[in-house]
Amino acid sequence: MNNSPFILAPASVTAVMLKVLGALLPGVVVYAWIFGPGVLVQIVLASLTALAAEAAMLAARGRPAGRFLADGSALVTAWLIALTFPPIAPWWITVGGTAFAIVVAKHLYGGLGQNPFNPAMVGFAVMIVAFPALMSQWPAQGLSAAEQIGLIFGAPRPLDAITAATALDALRTGLHESASAASVATVMASHPAFGQFAGRGWEWIALAYLAGGLYLLQQRLITWHIPVALLLGLGLTALPFWLADTAHYASPLFHLTAGASVLGAFFIATDPVSGATTPRGKLIYAAGIGVITWFVRAYGAYPDGIAFATLLMNICVPLIDMKTQPPVFGRKERR
Amino acid sequence: MTSYFFILIGAVLVNNVVFVRILGLCPFMGVSKKLETAIGMGFATTFVLTVACGSSYLIDHYLLTPLGLSYLRTLCFIVVIAAIVQLTELVIQKTSPVLHQVLGIYLPLITTNCAVLGVPLLNVAAKHDLIASLLFGFGSSLGFTLALVLFAAMRERMDGADVPLPFRGTAIAMVTAGLMSLAFMGFAGLDKFK
Q1: CA dist., res. B147 & res. B149, Å (int)
Q2: ipTM over 0.90
Q3: What three-state secondary structure class fits A138?
Q4: Lowest model confidence (mean pLDDT) among A32-36, A148-152, A256-260
Q5: What CA–CA distance (Å, rounded) separates A131 from A129?
Q6: Where are the alpha helices (DSSP H) in chain A?
Q7: Alpha-carbon Rg for chain B in angstroms
Q8: How confident is the model at residue A116, as a pLDDT?
């Protein structure tokens, strides 16, 4: 705890966004180290598209392009898209998703600070609904840099040799489509996508995101409510099912380290614009994301639930904020 | 028992009558400007739709099918729904004149809410029995109410947003409805798992 008097640093949107990008860096580095440089290409693609779309929309709306372009918010959206899309997605998937996110989800609502939906997750949801197969191919271990870049820019895809499902996807298909004898343990033992807890390598990526997230907490750019409530919501929903039927439900630890759980908890759900703003509202909002994520992963048709859960809770945010408004100081609870 | 549960889940979330089946858009767009009217409209539709599902099942099962008159189905359902709406309007007018005032033109419009006709017809197509029909109707109207209330809260917040001029009003509301529909795609498959 600091002691008074406090020296206040001037808070600007640019500074906040740069810190968020900095906090994402460890995750990006570990991601590129484990899965190869495809993700770096995606980041460049998404960033260029985001800036171009942002500039075009600002020009069309007659807003000062320089000031809003420099705030870096489009870059954060672009990075989140690049990190949630498959590293070997064809270039037009990333470009299309990013352009949709910036143009429709952000600027049609008035731009920075007014979008009710998280733009990056809108881009992800649109693309996974439209191109489910291409959106769930992750590079197989040991795919070279040249091969990854070739895939991004249109090389033919001889499926299984070069691509692999994520752990979440492999578990779903393993459990649902094979004979009833399959259990979590046998699926995890037989498939190369799995590591110690969840996906091979994903534990380390999750750990790197966690480090970045703790930095955001330390910088007070986010509060503890959303990450804690989201991870608890996810873990506590997974726990009873796992205890009741270890063979058919993955462990809470699997869910917490797999997919985009940690990225979602610290970087996606904490978006101050589309997320809830009151302390109690944040708890409800984030716990809701965690619970819905588990249900989509366990029973739904899509590989990861973070994007849909975030969008669904975004829809509920105006109502949550309205109902959890703290009473004005000096008065009792309203009504 | 579990199949009834999945009918309910399916009707509320997975095949949400507004977002997935794209039925009942007229009240969805028309009555969602204020939260209070949205809630009132939701309750009124819930009552009408559930009763309509039950009575249309009885008429179809005990009258139309035995007599081989199933080609009159749509016509009969429309008449039944119109009668139920009139009943609801009388009840609301007597019990809650304020709500009646607020709902105004939209209450008779429940008659033309295509969800109220669509859901009983879906019931027939899915060969639901009486309990399943009632549950499906109740679930669908709960899903309708949910969509309407969430949408109204979003629109109240969007009133303050700096939306580009060509997109003000109904246009941005349609875009929002589309994105909400996209979010509801995430529930796909939740009712298939047994």
Answers
A1: 6
A2: no
A3: strand
A4: A148-152
A5: 6
A6: 13-35, 38-61, 65-69, 73-84, 91-100, 119-130, 145-152, 159-162, 167-177, 184-190, 202-218, 225-244, 252-257, 261-263, 279-299, 306-323
A7: 17
A8: 92
In chain A, % of residues over pLDDT 70: 85
Confidence of residue A270 (pLDDT cuts 50, 70, 90): very high
Compute the CA torsion angle B2, B5, B10, B12 (nearest 10 deg).
-170
Cβ atoms < 10 Å from Cβ of A145: 13
Judged by a CB distance cut-off of 8 A, whether residue B6 touches chain A is: no
- What is the rounded distance in angstroms from the CA atom of residue A261 to the CA atom of residue A268? 10
Chain A residues with a Cβ under 8 Å from any Cβ in chain B: 60-61, 104-105, 107-111, 114, 116-117, 122, 125-126, 129, 292, 295-296, 299-302, 305, 307-309, 311-312, 314-316, 318-319, 322
Q: pLDDT, tens digit, for every residue of B78-90?
A: 998 889 888 888 8
Determine, for residues A319 and B153 on separate chains, whether the beta-carbon distance falls below 8 Å: yes
Residue B194 — pLDDT band, cuts 50, 70, 90? very low
Residue A171's nearest CA partner among A45, A76, A303 is: A303
How crowded is residue B130: how many other Cβ atoms within 10 Å of its Cβ?
13
Instruction: Report how far residue B78's alpha carbon sits from residue A26's, in angstroms, rounded to the nearest whole number.
Output: 62
Please give the C-alpha separations between residue A1 and each of A4, A6, A218, A260, in angstroms, as whole numbers. Answer: 10, 11, 11, 32
Assess B146–A contact: CB distance below 8 Å, yes or no: no
In this complex, do A109 and B186 lie within 8 Å of one another by their Cβ atoms? no
| Residue that the structure tokens 């609904």 belong to | A129
Report the pLDDT value the prediction gives residue B142, as an integer from 0 to 100: 94
Which amino acid appears at position B170 of this protein? T
